[in-house]
Amino acid sequence: RDFDVYISTYEDYESNARLITDREKIVLWPRKAVDWCPKGVMKQWWLLEKAIVKFGSSLETYDVIVKLRSDLLYHEPVTPAHFANASVGYFHVNSDHSFYAESSTFLSVMSTFYSSMVNEYFDQDNTYFPINWPNLKASCVVALRKYPPIDKTKYRIIRTDIYATLGSIVYPASVFEGVTGLHCPADYKPPFTPFSEERTRNLEKLVGNILAVRGIPNITQGKANLHWGGGRFASEKYFFLHVVNRAIIHPSAIPAFGIRAGNPHPPGDADVPKR
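^ thats the sequence. predicted structure below, dont judge the formating
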């Protein structure tokens, strides 16, 4: 096979995991190990953190590390060619559903996400966190990448690049001026896709505002885009913030537009490194 697969999941999914990879590349946990998590979306990051700790010395020997949800729907087989565009300092994401990077970049960024999630981001939904503006300016145009029509009936949730997340973080009010309609819809029901004329128009405005930034915007003049995602921890929002503050985001070549219809949240996620 083309890939070495490492899996971090729960003990009751051991037999499934063994169908995918060798036992020595699997780390298993009792479900009670994540009982402390106040939000279910935090569990995936705990599992990834444990995989990085357990397999870090092996992972750093690969050219590229790929993180995939186990319930993605692929429109073509995944091959090493999909990751040929990975290079140092760049991250390729489809929101937090799937992402990859050159191995040292991946480990540098993701080895700190769990601790940042717990100690900085959690329960801070309306807090403005400092932004790496050069990285954001170099990344923001990815949100405007065009796609062919997507059959929404095949997906539970659709995510492409940073289309759903560029408009998620708290911005200085001056940067968000004239931008509306980027919040998650109040009636969030699958299948959900962010593609709409209104959303695209507002994203174009936000990208233009970001590209016009000179220096560091003055946050004392106010902040905007509060309450995106709601709750005490919005996973996609803080994953995007964490990554863009540490790397430049480039388009993803993973051949998946989202989570396939009719499947529950996966029990654990697979890290797929490539030599």
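Confidence is low (pLDDT under 50) at residues 267-272.
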